[in-house]
UniProtKB/TrEMBL annotation:
Its job: Part of the Tol-Pal system, which plays a role in outer membrane invagination during cell division and is important for maintaining outer membrane integrity.
Spans annotated as Disordered: 21-58, 165-192
Species per Swiss-Prot/TrEMBL record: Sulfuriferula multivorans
Record's compositionally biased regions (Low complexity): 37-57
Keywords: Cell cycle, Cell division, Cell outer membrane, Lipoprotein, Membrane, Palmitate, Signal
A GO biological-process term: cell division
Identification of the protein by name: Peptidoglycan-associated lipoprotein
GO CC annotation: cell outer membrane
Chief place where the protein resides: membrane
Similarity field: Belongs to the Pal lipoprotein family.
NCBIfam families: Pal_lipo
Residues annotated as domain OmpA-like: 76-192
Length: 192
């Protein structure tokens, strides 16, 4: 199991290093004053048409990350990958799947642009297994997401990984649908 985790982390690291271009992406700060915006535009900042390269090498327009037509908090923009806050896992697993790459990149970009932002990564498990086992599994899931964000450049001081085990189910019941909903790590921002 440990070999799989390390190979996934190595792959993510190598992919991130291989897709970095020499051009820096600009980030629009919609919380600053008009003077801040003027300084950004004088410094060569652009809005709307900036392209950012994802880990998989696919290009995403700036509107996919910050919702150019959305004027509120980018974490709450329903069109943004940041509106997704949960990483789901297979039964008895704690490997982050590739399908969560865009979501984690968006959260990492936000955390890199807001160095004072903090996230709590809350690991969860379904109710199969002992409480102790599920608590440990939830912690491994939270740590897997923390490591994936760290590979993307997020500082350790901005992240905290905790486990709730089976104590915070999203969906009650003994069905596969309920189990699937409960095998997750939630990304929770400290200021929300």
């Amino acid at each position: 199991m440990n070999k799989i985790l390390w190979s996934v982390l190595l792959t993510l690291t190598l992919t991130a290093c291989g897709t970095t271009s020499g051009t820096k992406a600009t980030v629009e700060d919609r919380t600053g004053s008009k003077a801040d915006a003027a300084m950004t535009s004088q410094a060569g900042g652009a809005s709307g048409g900036t392209e950012t390269s994802a880990l998989g090498g696919k290009s995403m327009g700036a509107s996919a990350l910050d919702g150019s037509s959305y004027t509120g908090d980018p974490r709450k923009n329903p069109a943004s990958p940041m509106s997704n806050r949960s990483v789901y896992f297979d039964f008895d697993q704690f490997t982050v799947k590739d399908e969560y790459r865009a979501m984690l990149e968006a959260h990492a970009g936000y955390l890199l642009s807001k160095r004072d932002a903090r996230v709590i990564l809350q690991g969860n498990a379904d109710d199969r297994g002992s409480r102790e086992y599920n608590l440990a599994l939830g912690q491994k899931r939270a740590e897997a997401v923390r490591k994936a964000l760290a590979v993307l450049g997020v500082s350790d001081v901005q992240m905290e990984a905790v486990s709730f085990g089976e104590e915070k189910p999203r969906k009650e019941g003994d069905t596969e649908a309920a189990y699937t909903e409960n095998r997750r790590t939630d990304v929770v921002y400290a200021d929300e």
